[in-house]
Amino acid sequence: MKIHFLQTGLRYLWIAGLVLVLDQVTKYLAVSYLTFGEPLAVMPHFNLTLVYNYGAAFSFLADMGGWQRWFFVVLALVVGVVLLVWLSKLKAKPTLEVIGLQLILAGAIGNLIDRLLFGKVTDFLDFYYGSWHYATFNIADMGITLGAVMLVYYEFFLRPKASTESKK
């Protein structure tokens, strides 16, 4: 049985595409207009600060000598393939599951592009309170985080409800 692309969750790849373009454009602008390590105040508790991450979230494995770049490249490629297969098995409905997967896919690809082209990920969104700063991040990281939250919410609160209703 052949399933058409538009009948699956792949129909919404345009969401991943939009987030990916937004991620890459904002990273380009950050590199072009910000000075490395110098905060640009935008509003209270928020700066634009150009930094580079050679590791993963919160600079995990950043100082490991370079092998981590290729580890995260392979990981992103595997995750990307898994997400595409997962999306191909879902119905073409804009559920939190489908949208969450699209956001995670966009984030994985956005940071993958940075690692492949530059060997590091460009971060620039810097939230702080007093002297405490949250880890600086980017749009791709936001996509991964928001997508993961959406998936968890869907799995714990919406999927059980949907399967219960279908038994009635």
Notes on the structure:
The protein has 168 residues and is an alpha+beta fold. It contains 4 helices and 4 strands. The protein has helices spanning 13-33, 67-88, 96-118, 139-167; strands at residues 40-43, 46-53, 121-129, 132-133. It has a 4-stranded antiparallel β-sheet. It is globular. The protein starts with 12 loop residues before the first helix and ends with a helix. 29% of the residues are buried.
Structure class: alpha+beta
Going across the biggest sheet, name each strand in turn: 1-2-3-4
Largest sheet: 4 strands, antiparallel
Q: Per the principal axes of the C-alpha atoms, what is the gross shape?
A: globular
Relative strand content = 5-15%
Total helical segments: 4
In brief, what are we looking at here?
With 168 residues, this protein is an alpha+beta fold. It has helices at residues 13-33, 67-88, 96-118, 139-167, and strands at 40-43, 46-53, 121-129, 132-133.
List keywords for this structure.
4 strands, single chain, four-stranded antiparallel beta sheet, globular, 57% helix, 4 helices, alpha+beta, 168 residues
Write the layout of secondary structure elements.
Layout: H1 13-33, E1 40-43, E2 46-53, H2 67-88, H3 96-118, E3 121-129, E4 132-133, H4 139-167
Antiparallel strand pairs: 1-2, 2-3, 3-4
Helix pairs in contact: 1-3, 2-3, 3-4
